[in-house]
Design brief:
By secondary structure, this protein is an alpha+beta fold. It folds into 3 domains: 2-112, Alpha-Beta Plaits; 118-133 and 259-455, Trigger factor, C-terminal domain (Trigger factor, domain 2), CATH 1.10.3120; 151-246, Roll (Chitinase A, domain 3), CATH 3.10.50. 45% of the residues lie in helices and 19% in strands. It has helices spanning 21-36, 51-81, 134-146, 252-257, 263-295, 304-314, 320-325, 327-350, 357-370, 375-384, 386-408, 418-434, 438-445, and strands at 2-9, 12-19, 91-96, 103-110, 124-131, 150-153, 165-173, 183-190, 212-218, 232-246, 410-417, 466-468. Strands 1-2-4-3-12 form a 5-stranded mixed sheet. Strands 6, 7, 8, 9 and 10 form a 5-stranded antiparallel sheet that branches. A two-stranded parallel sheet has the order 5-11. β1 (2-9) and β2 form a beta hairpin. α5 (263-295) packs parallel to α12, α6 packs across α8 (327-350) and α8 runs parallel beside α13 (438-445). The radius of gyration is 36 Å and the shape is elongated.
Length: 473
Amino acid sequence: MKVTIENIKGLNKDIKVFIDKDTMNSHMDEKYEEIKGTVNLKGFRPGKVPKEVLKRQFGKAVFGEVLDKVLKDTSTKALEENKIKPAGQPKLDLKIYGEDKELEYVMSVTELPKVETKSIENIKYDQYLVKIDASETDKRIKEIAKNQPSFKDASPETKAKEGDLVALDYQATVDGKEFKGSEGKNTQLTLGKDLFLKGFDKQLIGVKKDEEKTVEAILPENYPEKELVNKKAKFVCKILNVKNPEEVKIDDNFAKNLGAKDLNDLKTLISKQINDEYKNSLDQLSKNQILKEIEKIKVNEIPENLIEEEVKILSQGMEEQEAKKNNAKFTETAKIRIKTGLILNEFGEQNKIQVTEQEIQAEVQKQLRMMPGQEKMVMDFYQKNPSAVASLRGTVYEEKILNLIKEKAKPNKKEITKAEAEKILKEANNHDHDKGDNKKETKKKTEPKPKEKKKPSSKASKSKPVTKKVSKK
């Protein structure tokens, strides 16, 4: 195989590939030998059909298969040997081809630009550590205790007041008749929360243990028996017990009930929990800073075909007139997104970053946990949409690249308070809000997820090249 490379313009190259006649004939002979054992022709024993007979019967089909394989193998080899990474599929223009002939073709390719990644290690970004004050931890523990109230039996003569827990049996009727679900045993209500029927528990204020009280309430819109919706029901209530709330004692036993070893361990766990609530959002700010710095790295030329594809994505769903109006803005956004993606991919390749199937499954499981009750729907979605799995792979791939950049770059470590963290996140959210319609674009721009179809890598050359039809010479 003889390869000649001609620079046409910038990243565009024409690669002339020549394979001599003897090599092409040897590929044909190999194919004939391969099919000889599988062909059954009348008058010939299996495996004994002469090559000339095979040529007459199957020559065109055999040549077509051989040509496809040689084009695929030689174009891939020509690109790899000359360290050319194509931006998109190469186009092949066949100049000379045919049975018992040499093969000559020209491969037109747009090359991915050379990308410098060394400066990534000099990127500076803010790395936040939220210092949780002991008072914040104590405040959170008190809130937990407040939401887990404890009650003690009141004296028999004590009248129920707001905040007390009342246990009761009831028998209900509508228009003097019992109905399905009209009976309740040992129903417990915290007075003032109004969680049973609207206005029901307020009528129990003042009751005592062993008293009987008739309460009236309207059955709600979502009541299962539709014919009773919005009907007034009478509830004859037998008060079983009245309990007064008591302050929950925050001690080791309280901590153990929440799964901690003791109170000090609970404080450590709660402090970490509060920190984690801010960590993900602050980490994303750090990654956005890194992406902004990556945008500043110079790339001499961006492939025009990639820009055109990206502009199509950005203008998807728009009217033609609106797309034309925004073309300049979309082109600029496309250049930044592609440049960022090229740099991230190059860094990922240089550091041999790969995404395993286990990591993909872990990401799917994470999404399942975020959508309780819809697990089957989520699983079906990924099983039926390979493009969604590819997008998920791109998300994980980008995350791994950014995490490695964080390790190699130069963090400006900042220990901040919870209040300072809230202020930083609020300012960041306001900044995004101020961008208005550009917010979605910015998000796309700062999240260049490599996609298997468009991921710029040396492996792209292995896809089948587009071949121009030409007449034989």
